Amino acid sequence: MSGFVLKRMGFAVITLIAVLTIVFFIVRILPGDPAMVILGDQASQQSIELLRARLGLDRPLIVQYYDFMSGVAVGDWGTSMVSGRPVIAEILKVLPATLELTFAALILGAVIGIPLGVWAAISRNTIPDYLIRLASLLGLSFPAFVSAVLLLFAFAIYLPMFPVMSSGRGTTLGARLNDLALPAINLGLIMAAYITRVSRSAMLEVLGQDYVRTAKAKGIRFSAIIWRHCLRNTMIPVVTVVGLYLGILIGNSVLTEIVFNRPGLGRLIVGALNQRDYTMLQGMMVIYTLLVVVVNLLTDLTYGLIDPRIKYS
Amino acid sequence: MSAKDPAIQAPKVSYFRLTLAALGSGMIKAFNTNKTSWVGLGLFAFVCLLALLAPLIAPHDPLDQNILDRLEGPSWEYWMGTDAYGRDTLSRILHGARISLLIGLVSITAALLIGTVIGLVAGYVGGKTDIIVMQIMDVLLAFPSLILGLIVVAMLGPSITNLVIAIALTAIPHFARIARAPTIVVKEREFVEAGRALGYSNIRLMGGHILPNILPEVLVMGFLWLATAIRVEASLAFIGLGVSPPTATWGGMIREGFENILDNFWLAFFPSLAILIVVFALNLLGDGLRDAIDPRLRGES
């Protein structure tokens, strides 16, 4: 087990380094000089040179790369070119809001998706199955911003049940939940669509197994077979897919945060893009990569919790 | 045994025609297995037709501003209402379809071709090449595609070509993976062995014998990814990284509608519906086909 964890962590670190390298060079070949963008095109050549020197952009690429990578390793991600504050501080300020949203969406997605998927599987090729499949296919056809705009209109403007702008800074639990509700429902429903589909197909596969037939032959109650025998075995593919779709969830959280005007990584990255805040963009890439790598690692480790037969050799 | 012996002489065949024929019959069978695929195809074809005919059937010029009729709801004059500049929403949706479909089709075709070649070669050659190539693909896969698209478009500037590049880039690793898996299975089959015994070149084996066998799976993924591509393009346009205004794009229109949502709800509603219909049609199409060709689901009914 510990050997496996070490190996996986080693692999995660290598992935991290590879992605960061790609990111570093992508950001560097952006056309346009950040110094010129920050100072405006009226700025004198001299002040541009000065700012370039201050930002370290005049040094050889390889030196910048070394500084960047060693900076990432020790938690020094540079300072924002726009606000002048440390990048890591800006990111950590909004990260909890995004994580809160993502977790809420995951939980909502699982709570809705797993039972629906199981129901569809056990009533295969009947009306409920067709309806659930159609609904889940429709759910994953929604671009996140489209569903967000529609939800916002329906439940914040037409029926003013929730705030139009969720500040994400409510002090009481009730206020926080109220803020979180619409964005989380938006992301959660999309997640539920994915989870429903994978739960259904995983459940179908399990239902065809010998041990299920044996259990039936022994006269065990059908609900007991489903909940006790089958469900746990369907969880491996579900967890895999949840891990894989985290990328989609992160992408969608950007759109959701923009529509609901909610603080988070999404608004930070769009702001950084508009202002050509290179250091901030780099920091965003680091944090997104970290999130994905960590989730992949957790996904792998969860397998062992779900299925004790997995020995991590 | 002379080289003229018909038993060992390589048959003269048009691989292109054979591939097409196999694909054609395979696809029709797949379509018939799951009838919802036909519905998806019909819907998608209808949207393509509307997009093709947009200049002929659009009731107004999509860029024509009529400031007296701004932000109107649906009416006989403007079936889907007008935007903040008094432009006809229906005409803009029809013209926007051309952009969405163009970017989607070109980027996914490119990704499909490049990704399939990468996956095919990696799977066929195997060994270290396979490991290294697929490792690179996995690293690219680790990154959320919308974020990657965002960065690439921001760095290249929002134009149709750059959007195509950005979306293709995010889709290539997926196609490489999809092409590689069946290649590894198919390359062990007897007919490939036989071809090798006949002295066929690797390129001929890959292109003429393995490719037709893996193509259906790749094409099905193509439909599903086309849906994703259209969604990503719209998302980027919504963020403000789409084809520059005044060109009509669905994502851009929803953004405008969102900004004016208190004045005219329809402005955001109709383009949303348009995206939803296209993406849903493609998902219906791809999903039905995938069920039909999925070997694990084959044979059971």
Which stretches of chain A of 5+ consecutive residues score pLDDT under 50?
Answer: none
The major beta sheet of chain B can be summarized as: none
Can you write the helix and strand succession of chain B as a string?
HHHHHHHHHHH
Low-confidence stretches of chain B: 296-301
Describe the oligomeric state of these chains in a short phrase.
Answer: heterodimer
By DSSP, the count of extended strands of chain A is 0
How much strand content do the residues of chain B show? under 5%
Q: Give the helix proportion of chain B (percent range).
A: over 70%
Strand count of chain B: 0
Report the mean per-residue pLDDT of chain A as an integer.
80
Alpha-carbon Rg of chain A, integer: 24 Å
Q: What coarse outline of chain B follows from CA principal-axis ratios?
A: elongated
Proportion of helical residues of chain A: over 70%
Q: Kindly, what is the distance between the CA atoms of the first and last residues of chain A, rounded to a whole number of angstroms?
A: 7 Å
Question: Which structural category do the helix and sheet elements of chain A fall into?
Answer: mainly alpha
Residue-averaged pLDDT of chain B: 80
Please tell me what the overall shape of chain A is.
globular
| Most strands sheet of chain A | none
Beta fraction of the residues of chain A? under 5%
What is the end-to-end distance of chain B? Answer: 49 Å
- Give me the number of helical elements of chain B: 11
